[in-house]
Amino acid sequence: MMDRISLVLVIIGALNWLLVGLFQFDAVAWLCGGQTATLSRIIYAIVGLAGLWSVSLLFREREPVTEE
Q: Global pTM?
């Protein structure tokens, strides 16, 4: 469950960076009142933690998929 939540947050963060890169528009800052607003900083921190959690996905053993 934590893996999926982290993946969703990382995707949201990636889409926000796409907007920043293409249009110089930070959706998180726009929604939360600027980059230095407390809520924005909390969201940035949560997305960053999700990214760190997602790094662990690279080094885990995968379970084989069995069809029943």
A: 0.80
